[in-house]
Target: Elongation factor P
Amino acid sequence: MLNVNELRAGTTFKDSQGIWEVVTYRHTKMGRGRATIRVKVKNFKTGSTIEKTFTSGQKVDEADISKIKGQFLYSNANDIVFMDNTNFEQFSLSKSVAGGKEMFLKEGDIYDLLAAGDQVLSVDIPKLVTIKVADTGSAVKGDSVSSVTKDAVLENGLKIKVPLFINVGDKIKIDSRTGEYVERVK
Model:
């Protein structure tokens, strides 16, 4: 059992509705009453995010989550395929396990997979990923007065806005949570 005062971002717990990961934690104490704990949590199976409220002193069941390493091999229409590097067995997961971020997976890279028992719940994708620019337009003279952007297509097919100084072949860092440009990699 896990005390609700110990719930912090990244902590996992389970209840009758499923296995949850804490996204945000807020502790509120009003006057002489009991403290309330408000947590925004994400359901591993459905991907939905809700807010739960607990009173101080309550307990929740701790989820037995383990991290396993998996090398990303490829993806097809419905699945993403990984390989276990210890026994070289391949296994496929539904694209929903990646939470819509499967486009940021790079072939050959090793990722942490969060699993409960023998069921993989999610793929831990880094916040910043480095991707090569496949195609972009040219900069227009006179557009350098303000922070003007242009369209770019990355090697994974993602279309984003980048600054004018980015060229084809440049490697850039992308925020995997928002899909936005962060910086150019030198």
User: Anything to note?
Assistant: Residues 2-62 form a domain with the SH3 type barrels. fold (CATH 2.30.30.30). The chain has three domains: 2-62, 66-124, 128-185. The chain has a mean pLDDT of 85.
